[in-house]
Description:
Blueprint: H1 6-22, H2 26-36, H3 47-61, H4 66-78, H5 83-93, H6 96-99, H7 105-115, H8 118-134, H9 136-146, H10 152-159, H11 171-178, H12 187-201, H13 205-214, H14 219-225
Helix pairs in contact: 1-3, 1-4, 3-5, 4-5, 5-8, 7-8, 8-9, 8-10, 9-10, 10-12, 12-13, 12-14
Amino acid sequence: MPTRPDGDAAALTARIRDALAVQADPERARGQQAYMKSAMPFYGVPVPEARRIARTAAKSAGATDSAVLQDAARSLWDAAAHREERYAAMALLALPAASADSRIVPLIEHMVRTGRWWDYTDELAHRLAALHDREPVATAALVRRWSTDEDLWIRRIAIISQLGRRERVDRDLLADVIDPNLADREFFIRKAIGWALREFARVDPDWVRQYAGTHELSPLSRREALKHF
Length: 229
């Protein structure tokens, strides 16, 4: 991985933390923490604003190198004292220099395994969706492997990794990541299966109807999958 002076990432990290702290809203923070059932406190900064802060800081710092963005994202994530720092970390990975780099996969995996909640996992799924377009063979192999992982959040991101791809969805891959999880009783897995199928039904309802008719979906997954029929 190309490297840049440590100070670049450190300066970007500090700039983002400072900007988040300035906009702290304790009253909003209490509501956010309760809603997310989060042990980690919030600053009280809305998620879109946390993302904007990350993007603006990266632009102001001239951070266009994937390695620097990844270093800053990992620092924000691992040392986070407030949840918005993690939202900002994920926003850095959405910037073009990082999102186009398949070497962010280990960091995505690290974030999913250590974050262990739906807001992190669902946001990071967008990064995999981008990699499906850029490196389809390697990314398909990755999510097939992740679909049988012991960690439910890794399995969830595998299932929803093609959300938003519409006509570009690989049907065989979608079935391959759902199939090993059909019997799972975990709510977040069943919800993910239904979500992935429901979204693809907007593009190919016949395929989803046939899949639902030939596979033993849980009531939750089936209800979600066929919601718009």
